[in-house]
Amino acid sequence: MSQIEIKNHPKFCNVFTSGSKEKLRLYTRNRDKGNRVYGERLLEYKENEYREWDPFRSKLAALILENPINNFLSDDLSCLYLGASSGTTISHLSDILTNGIIYGVEFAERSIRQLIQNTSRRKNVIPIFADARYPDEYAKSIFSKIDLIYQDVSQPNQAEIAIDNSNYYLNEKGLLVLAVKSQSIDSVQKSEYIYAQEKKILENRGYKIIESINIHKYAANHIVLLVKKR
Ligand SMILES: C[S@@+](CC[C@H](N)C(=O)[O-])C[C@H]1O[C@@H](n2cnc3c(N)ncnc32)[C@H](O)[C@@H]1O
Fold this sequence. Notes:
Bound molecules: S-adenosylmethionine
Helix content: 10-25%
Oligomer: single chain
Strand order of the largest sheet: 8-7-6-9-10-12-11
Strand content: 25-35%
CATH topology of the largest domain: Rossmann fold
Structural class: alpha/beta
Order of helices and strands: EEEEEHEHEHEEHEHHEE
Largest sheet: 7 strands, mixed
Number of strands: 12
């Protein structure tokens, strides 16, 4: 039995914390009891099982630890997740969005196989084997309007992929959370220059950056943008 006290995160629903402000650890309540997705630590606390959420493995956890102003999570969101990989972050979103749904798009065969395995008992996750560059190709698999698009794809044209998907699926009041990896766009230019370019592309196509969070502490050459339609 763990001695660690687990508390509600002061801002984000269904996210939990332990430790001091300086050494905060994040958790979600495990929807798939007894099972891990990426070797994360499981903890029992007051008859619930929690999974530790590693900010070095998940940019969404890194973002939350960097304390964005906007509280962008609620338990009933429908989420389109681009670049699902084997489901590290999606599994935590699945714990958080208890009344919502997550469509996870991934184009690598090996990763989608692992994603299906890792989420088969999670009824709010729908894995989609598709290329995020072509949003119309998975329209038949998406049954609801989308409140939150989360994108973490290692592609040179990250802003364009995010815009094309947002134009296609995002609610007028929805939010795009875009992890920008400068190294995938250009490995020679300075990261700051690339971030500015990506922001400009979004703004020129009718989007507004509401927050820009540097997560370099956890993921080298990454920022996360919170973006809305103008
Ligand atoms: C950095 S990993 C994502 C990690 C994941 N977001 C997590 O936190 O668990 C990037 C993923 O995007 C996928 N990807 C890259 N380009 C893609 C595309 N055009 N369509 C779909 N998936 C793509 C890669 O195969 C890889 O699995």
